[in-house]
Amino acid sequence: MFQFLKKKSYSLLAPIDGTVMSLDEVKDPIFSQRMMGDGIAIAATGDLVCAPADGLITVTIEARHAFGMSLDNGMELLIHVGINTPMNHQDAFEILIDENKRVTAGTPIIRIDHSRLDEDILITPIIITNPECFQIIHSHLDEQATASETTIIDYIPH
Questions:
Q1: Active site residue 80
Q2: For 80-115, what is each residue's pLDDT tens digit?
């Protein structure tokens, strides 16, 4: 009874290989204090950053370390690879998709050349920039994630 009141749930896939962690653990107050929005982070070890869901690439950052997406369900995401790393190592990142291109979950967006970086692990926040529209119902914290395969967040629209 009342199944018609139940909201459809959605999931985000890991955009990169690594360990899922809480934003509280990110050593940057912009992310840990959720100034840009809610989400999770990944202690990333992979070399490809992929789309976590179907949608439109809305922005790529000039330093090539981040991109924004508008998902088909209206969620807006920011995926930011590394904390303070890109400022000194822009040449370690390659954008593979142009802005305003539709992508499907798993489409590679950024390639990382770890040989050009000082860190082996890049803390990578995945931020819902319109959190007033969506509620995270489960974050898969402390799990080992495989890009484009592992669910990292389950959520519903408000």
A1: yes
A2: 999 877 566 778 999 999 999 999 999 999 999 999
| Cβ atoms within 10 Å of 142's Cβ, excluding its own | 9
Phi first, then psi: give them for residue 26, nearest 5 degrees: -75, 130
**Range of lowest pLDDT (17-31, 75-89, 136-150):** 75-89
**Residue from 77, 55, 49 nearest 148 by CA:** 49
Sign for the CA dihedral angle at 19, 34, 149, 66 comes to negative
Do 67 and 94 meet the contact criterion of CB atoms below 8 Å apart? no
Length of the chain counted residue by residue? 158
Average pLDDT over residues 127-153: 97
The SS3 of residue 114 is helix
CA 155 from centroid of its chain's CA atoms? 14
Query: Cβ(124)–Cβ(152) under 8 Å?
Result: no
Q: Which residues pair with 108 in a beta bridge?
A: 50
Choose, from 65, 80, 89, 138, the residue flagged as catalytic.
80
Q: In this predicted model, which residue has the larger pLDDT, 53 or 6?
A: 53
Q: Tell me the C-alpha distance between 23 and 42, whole Å.
A: 9
Q: Above 80 in pLDDT, residue 5?
A: no
